[in-house]
Amino acid sequence: MDSSAIIAIAAALAIAVSTIGPSMAQGKTAAAAMESIARQPEAANNIRSTLIIALALIEALTIYGLLIAFMLISRI
Amino acid sequence: MGEGSKVLFKLFGILDVTPEVVTSWIIMALIILVSFIGTRRLKDTPGFWQNILEVALLKLESFFGDTLGIKSKRMKMCFPFLATMFIFIIVSNYTGLLPGAGELSWLGAPTSSLSVTAGLGVLTFCALHYFGFRTHGKGYLKHFIRPVFFMLPFLIIDEVVRPVSLALRLYGNVFGEETVTEQLYAIIPIGAPIIMMVLSLLFCALQAIVFTMLASIYIYEATEEIE
User: Is residue B106 part of a domain?
Assistant: First the structure.
């Protein structure tokens, strides 16, 4: 296997593995938010804005993986 | 790291001017022009531009007021900085969606370059400690050895990581989203990029909100009362 093939696999792994954790975390966050909206519909607006910010923060972790993948691809 | 930015021309023979710099100049000129038109003749019954600016500023004030405490001294001190940051970031994120961005050599979202977002991160870092020192004076340094002395290295790491994570988050989101749009364009030129661009409309605003929200939380921590 030459080095460009290894880099390609590394790039694929970087984005694929870094998606696993945040996707589970986002699922948990969204589930908890929906549960609390169902329990207390009058607080829906507050919960929604906090939810979106939390999701964006979790999303950043995946984005780091994506960045590494792009950096690796540019080296092929 | 994404630094494919080419030098357009040289200023005074030494300074390299890249497309990001030119676009930032255009954005600054635009923001200054709109503010100038809006505040030229202030009236009790606002005209079109004054009305828009007032609504926008009131929204921003209530948004930052949630974290910093509306009508507090801290708010009066930090609001101009945070609001400027927000307006600049949101306008530069949306620049990437303009027709011709990326095609014309001098137009492109400034925030899709790591240099610009790193600059914004460092600026936030400096402002944060400036506000901290202004509120507490020399006592601000005690903030680094609380609750116990050996926390010092960890707290310093925490402070240094903040601008880095702010910069990387903003850069990664805007750059990643532009690259995905580009890849979609390469696969199906007609129609497919629109899906990602509609999502971009949401993400661009969201990233500006997250950046300034985190900055305001950091400022709140730096300026809160020490008992």
Answer: yes
pLDDT (tens digit per residue) in B150-194: 888 888 888 888 898 889 889 988 888 888 888 888 888 888 888
Q: What is the pLDDT of residues A23-68, one digit of tens each?
A: 999 999 999 999 999 999 998 888 888 888 888 888 888 888 888 8
Is residue B1 situated within a structural domain?
A: no
The rounded distance, in Å, linking the Cα atoms of B63 and B56 is 11
Task: Report the residue of chain B nearest A65, measured CA to CA.
Answer: B172
Per the CB < 8 A criterion, the answer to whether B82 and B127 are in contact is no
Measured in angstroms, the CA of B161 and the nearest CA of chain A are apart by: 14
Q: Are B63 and B90 in contact (CB under 8 A)?
A: no
Domain assignment present for residue B4? The answer is no
In this structure, is the dihedral angle defined by the CA atoms of residues B71, B77, B78 and B79, taken in order, positive or negative?
positive
Asked if A70 lies within 8 A of B213 by C-beta distance, the reply is no
Domain span at residue B144?
A: 9-223
Which residues, numbered 15 to 74 in chain A, qualify as contacts with chain B under a Cβ-Cβ cut-off of 8 Å? 52-53, 56-57, 59-60, 63-64, 66-67, 70-71
Q: Which CATH class is domain A3-73?
A: mainly alpha
What ipTM is given for this predicted complex?
0.73
- 0.80 surpassed by pTM: yes
Domain count, chain B: 1
CB distance B1–A67 less than 8 Å?
yes
Min Cα–Cα distance to chain A from B214, Å: 10
Of B104, B126, B96, the C-alpha closest to B199 is: B96
Nearest to B177 by CA among B122, B115, B111: B111
Domain boundaries, chain A: 3-73
